[in-house]
Each structure stands twice: as C-alpha cells, then as structure tokens.
Amino acid sequence: MQRRAIITLPLLAMPAMAQTRFPERPIRLIVPWTAGGPADVGFRALSELASRRLGQPVVVENRAGAAGILGALALQEARPDGHAISQMHVGVVRQMLLNPRPPYHPIDDLTYILQITGFIMGAVVRADSPHRSLPELLAHARAHPGRLNYGTLGTGSTQHLLMERIALAQGITWTHAPYRGTADTLRALLGGEIDFASESSGWAPLVQAGQLRLLAVYGSERARRFPDVPTLRELGIDLTIDSPGGLIGPRGMDAGVVRVLAEAFTEAARDPTHLQILERLDQPLLLADGAAYRELMRRTMEEERAVLRQLNMLPA
Questions:
Q1: Which backbone phi and psi does 113 adopt, to 5 degrees?
Q2: Residue 67 within any structural domain of the chain
Q3: Is residue 281 part of a domain?
Q4: What is the value of pTM for the model shown?
C-alpha cells in the first residue's frame, strides 16, 4: 500500500492544476499610469469587455509613477496563475537599460500575452504661445539655449527621449521637467510652469477646445482628428514613434492560461465599443500574439540600448 501511494500521488497532483478552471476569481490588471489618461481609457474599456468573456471581473488598478514600470515590478512578486497582469509599454524595457541594478529582465522575467495597440504622441503648446509650428519652436530654442523647458510623464519615457534625440540632432538644448502622468503634465503646461509638452494624446480634448496647439505628431501617419498637423518626418526630422502596447504577466505562466487571456482580450480589442474608443484616441489596433510581441520587444531593447548610448544615458 505504501508503495502504491508513493507512485500515484505525484501522478494525481500533476493534472490537478491543469484541471482548475481559469479564471477562478477576479483578475487584477495594473495600469501604470494615472486614471483618465489615454493609456488608461482604452484599457478600462478592454477590461470590461474581456470580463464578459472570461466570466470574472477584470479590475483595473492604477499605479502611476516611476516612469510606468510599477506594473512590471508588481508582477515580479505575483503568482504566475494569470490573476495578476499588467499593461505593457516600451518604457518597461527602456527603464531597465537606464537602471544600473535592474530589478527584472524585461524579456526573460515577464510573460508576453498580447500586443494590442499603439499610442499617438505629439508636442503641444498653449494656445497663446508665440510658437505656431515646431520649426518655430526649434528656432527659438536654438537662439535661446537652455531657456525653453518641456514636460513629459517621466525621465526616460518615450516622450522624453524623443525630445532629447531631436535636441541632439538639431544642436539645441532645453530643460526637461518630469511629471507623474499626462494629466499632471498638461496641468503644468496650462498653468505656465513649462513652455511645451511632449505627451500622449491626452492633449486631444484641449487641442479641440482651443486651449492647446498641436505642433507635430510622432507617428508614421498624421492623426485622423488633426489632419492638418504634420508628422516629424514631414518636417524633416527622421524619427517615428508608434509605441506598441499590450499585456504582460509574471514569468512562468501556463500556456493554457496565456491562451485564455489572449483570446478574451483579442475579442475585446475587436469589439466595436473598443474600436470606437481607439478611433476617438487616434490609436491604431496592432494585434499580435505573445510570441511576436516578445520578439518585437527583444529587438526594441537592442534599438533602445543604441539610442541611450548615443545620448550618453547608459549607466556606467
């Protein structure tokens, strides 16, 4: 009898986890930005739509700060059972290159679930600014070194590095002011704390209301809502930022759990309700499976390393 128990117990234990229905409780989705911003709105809609397909609530938890890596950091302590996931963005990769003692490896220590969308970004000034175009702003910065200051959602963010790359290419200097999120950056701009903002499309309602002026967008195409605003490339600046984003989980997630999440969020992403939100935010749908997304981020990591080296921002 003892011998039979020793042989059969491991065999019974192995399929027990696989037979557990997923999800068996609410799923926590960490959005590493302030509530109400462009990176938050779409994922809240996705969460509600995915909840209907999963049979359990997907609860959004905002964790703003630290240039958007608090979700990835939280996953390092989470169980890899699929009940804790996070929004993914390029900063999750880049910030580890900037950190002399990175707390996680952005490729090996995360499970890539699904790439979903991209984020439109651009440079905005107040409506009363004397700078009516990006070339005018650059000319002013060149004539007044270090006098202009600009805000982004954090040091090392895509929006920050793009401005520094432009400054390097144009031979100009300006001062960076980091904020906790897009809403904080735009409040600072409206309040006169900064001269311009390099931010995600949270500026769109303020541009449409006539409070801000959009000088340029960073993507490969013009924004549908602002067809008169040029891309950087159209202005002779050979830089394009589409910034793909998606979902990640802790390292070691079961492939079946990943598949359930990917299928639910893919259906949610294609839902007309979500597509309308993307259109309103000028965000493209960029669906790709976890393997393709992981490979893209692996290549992105090497490209980001080269950019940071060019800007002398890699730690010694």
A1: -100, -50
A2: yes
A3: yes
A4: 0.80
